[in-house]
Amino acid sequence: MKLQIFTVDAFTDQPFSGNPAAVVPLLEPLEEQTLQNLASELNLSETAYVSPIGGDTESWVTSSQFTLRWFTPTNEVPLCGHATLATAHTLFNCLGNRNNRLEFKTMSGVLVARKESSNIVLDFPENPPEPLTAEQTTDLDVLVKGVVNNLLVDTVLLSHTTKKLLVKLHSSCTRKDLESLKPDTASLLSLHNGSLVKGIIVTLSGGLQGEMSEDSQLYHCISRYFAPWNGIPEDPVTGSAHTVLGPFWSKELGMTRLRCRQCSPRGGDLIVSVRGDGRVDLAGKATTVIQGHISI
């Protein structure tokens, strides 16, 4: 069997930056193990499988409703922003979908992607982080230190819905400090079994306090994301992490529209709008890098 496959760099308009995801359009279901084997073979942080609901080959052009699943090299995950953006980009720009609004039925409910100017906007559930209990603080303290080393920490919170630990560095820390972090994957896996935490967001203010301008080099927040428990030592740009970062920084800064930078070595940009209805809009760009077929 031959399958179409697209590799898309998400949250960037430049190839070889942002976060790469594979997108595999399917008209017929595949066995679970085949889905996982293919994701492992591709070895990207996410492989997205998209299918039109009740459709045929013409549905790639006409349908506005799809099922969507996301697999890392080791397991299926309930939510992935950059692979959703990559999927919407593939439908709009590679498969010729004529709609301006797409709905994806997923493990996290129905997610919407829509065209807006030069961006694709994702309508996602917000996942605000919460304070740790005293017991959780004690249990996770060694894990936090394993990520940030000797940097001072201001706040540690947990998003229970996504199992993401948010670590806000002290204001004395700089972007250079954040970019210099090199946590050891094997060490992190030995410090925690993934039962409570599946990924760690390390964040810092980006220096932008007011409304954003097109030529500003500042951001409302900057971050990095490490998820070895999902087979991802570091994710280049993470949409789902910004469903946690958005409500946190919105509250910190008293703003609802945030310009965000994930400053991994590849790096990428997002605009996060906290809507106040339990949802966030994640806006970004994407670019197709590879188109082809894979035989299974």
UniProtKB/TrEMBL annotation:
InterPro entries: Phenazine_PhzF-like. It comes from the Eukaryota. Gene3D superfamilies: Diaminopimelate Epimerase, Chain A, domain 1. Keywords: Isomerase. GO terms for cellular component: cytoplasm. The active site is at E46. GO terms for molecular function: isomerase activity. PANTHER family: PHENAZINE BIOSYNTHESIS PROTEIN (PTHR13774), PHENAZINE BIOSYNTHESIS-LIKE DOMAIN-CONTAINING PROTEIN (PTHR13774:SF17). Belongs to the PhzF family. This is Phenazine biosynthesis-like domain-containing protein. It comes from Penaeus vannamei (Whiteleg shrimp). The lineage of its organism: Eukaryota, Metazoa, Ecdysozoa, Arthropoda, Crustacea.
